[in-house]
């Protein structure tokens, strides 16, 4: 998905650059020819201000393409409903909150209310040590 | 890996704790021991982050758990260097270290006396008073622990963690009404905590099993709690499991007695039809969760293995009488 959005954005920028270059060239050409013409005879000055329609269309298309590419490239939106968000945590665990590089988001804490059951302030370290020693004695399965 | 060091540690399975503590020497070598605020290097290196100190604290806990006392002590020293020995949280951490390394009960008593001395100087030291309560519990002095905990809650009634601990203490002693009260206090502070709703449902279910008189009422209440936990969290396995248990119990017990007793107070008893539909919903959802998780579908892998096995068993138990 990312390569599609990136290529569309890139193409859009290419078109935009091309349109800008064309517009610049066109105005340079116009002013040069207008200067030579006005030395001979007076010509309609409105022709200098108008831009050919194909350059305008290219500009608009390029901007639309850039917008489309950027929108396609946004990361998945996070749920804003409580139950959906909570369900995502329960259902997907860490995997649901990974960014593109396969790393878990920095602000991911899992279920934020889990501390009410694990209670780090009341951790019974001796019991944990005993349990751990038993786990090792049993062969250390998962 | 380092992301799990940034979260509270106590519920991690032992295999993860081993992994973390095996990496401890490496982490300790590579993280700065102290950050002086006005050094030349602070111009280009990142400023100190709270994550660094959280990592030290959690690393210390998992090292203590696995018995790597050297690394734990190093963590403690670095934290002390940064925050000073009179920091409340560090006092608690040092006490934790001494508890973990204590050889016998006499040493533990000494730690307890030390806690009491600290609390005599400063009764508002929350982390240390929590440590003292835990140590009392660990020494099997449950009544003392309960008294201390109620005193702590008198001083600070919005401490959800302490209420939850109190509920657990009462529950371990079989004092279910008190445990339920404490859990309701937790829910007043954290009304959106879906796991605490489920926990209250479980306690109510257990209380109903041992209680003859108001069992129906408590079962109905328990069912409502599980419904609320599901309302707060889509596809909540624990909630659906509890819902399944309570509804099947409600359907098997005769509801006749509950009708009259309901007339005076509280919510009316749930209608049989509604309970049946809830039971069907719970069965359908449980089987969906189990099926999708076992098949390894993307986005359904976060459930605990043991929970899934338990749900499977419940479904099998349910399926048997129908096939017979």
Automatic annotation (TrEMBL), chain A:
Q: GO CC: one term?
A: EMC complex
Pfam families documented for this protein: MMgT
Protein's name in the database: Magnesium transporter
Q: How does it sit in the membrane?
A: Multi-pass membrane protein
Instruction: Name the source organism.
Output: Venustampulla echinocandica
Top-rank taxon of the source lineage equals: Eukaryota
Question: Biological process GO annotation list?
Answer: protein folding in endoplasmic reticulum
Where does it localize?
Endomembrane system
> Record keywords: Transmembrane helix included?
yes
* Alphabetical list of InterPro entries matching this protein: EMC_subunit, MMgT
Q: Does the keyword Transmembrane apply?
A: yes
Keywords of the record: Membrane, Transmembrane, Transmembrane helix
- Main site of residence? membrane
Automatic annotation (TrEMBL), chain B:
Gene3D superfamilies in the record, alphabetically?
Answer: Tetratricopeptide repeat domain
The protein's assembly and partners: Component of the ER membrane protein complex (EMC).
- Tell me which species this is from: Venustampulla echinocandica
EMC2 TPR-like domain: residues covered: 112-203
Q: Which domain of life is it from?
A: Eukaryota
**Listed name of the protein:** ER membrane protein complex subunit 2
Q: Which family does it belong to?
A: Belongs to the EMC2 family.
Please state where this protein is localized: Endoplasmic reticulum membrane
According to the record, where are the TPR repeats?
160-193
Query: Which membrane topology term applies here?
Result: Peripheral membrane protein
Q: What does this protein do?
A: Part of the endoplasmic reticulum membrane protein complex (EMC) that enables the energy-independent insertion into endoplasmic reticulum membranes of newly synthesized membrane proteins.
Q: Which UniProt keywords are listed?
A: Endoplasmic reticulum, Membrane, Repeat, TPR repeat
